[in-house]
Design a protein that fits this description.
166 residues, mainly alpha, 5 helices
Length: 166
């Protein structure tokens, strides 16, 4: 006997739900990898500038760090330290995507049209931030590395650090 309170859901609806949830999860991963990449660059820059007194290097490092932090701040809310902080500092793209994934996975049903629309919007906004990151890395990292090389310091390396490293 079928329970009238439980809606009937087709296999096709569940596959659609899984597919969208997986797409969202993949975008959350991309957002997190971008943050890890930014933090790796900033950590390397901080290590190089701390070991040197050259004012030009410090200025260039701060300028590059500010640009990277701008992208990081749109992708991830780095100011949150306590449970009350989200009241003062709004959630960012990674958290919005993760919240959407929770909504999509919250029941056994086909995703709503609104879920698709929100995913499309958030994904486009993430793409914009990823493009900004690429532009900063392409335009500013080579110049910073040239300064480092001129000071006989190791250049910074771009990329997502391997898991388990900082």
């Amino acid at each position: 006997m079928r329970n009238a309170n439980v809606p009937t859901v087709s296999d096709r609806d569940l596959v659609e739900q899984f597919t969208l949830a997986k797409q969202i999860n993949d975008r959350v991963t991309v957002a997190h990898e971008a943050v890890l990449r930014i933090r790796s660059l900033k950590d390397q820059m901080a290590a190089r500038t701390a070991a040197n007194t050259d004012a030009g290097l410090k200025t260039a490092g701060q300028s590059l760090a500010d640009k990277l932090t701008s992208v990081e701040g749109e992708t991830y809310q780095y100011r949150n330290r306590s449970n009350q902080d989200p009241l003062n500092y709004p959630i960012r793209l990674n958290n919005k995507l993760a919240a959407l994934q929770g909504i999509v996975e919250s029941g056994d049903a086909k995703p709503t049209d609104q879920s698709y629309a929100v995913f499309k919007d958030l994904s486009a906004r993430l793409d914009k931030e990823l493009a900004r990151l690429e532009a900063v890395v392409k335009a500013d990292v080579p110049g910073f590395n040239a300064l480092l090389t001129g000071l006989k310091l190791e250049p910074i390396k771009d990329g997502v650090p391997p898991a388990g490293t900082k």
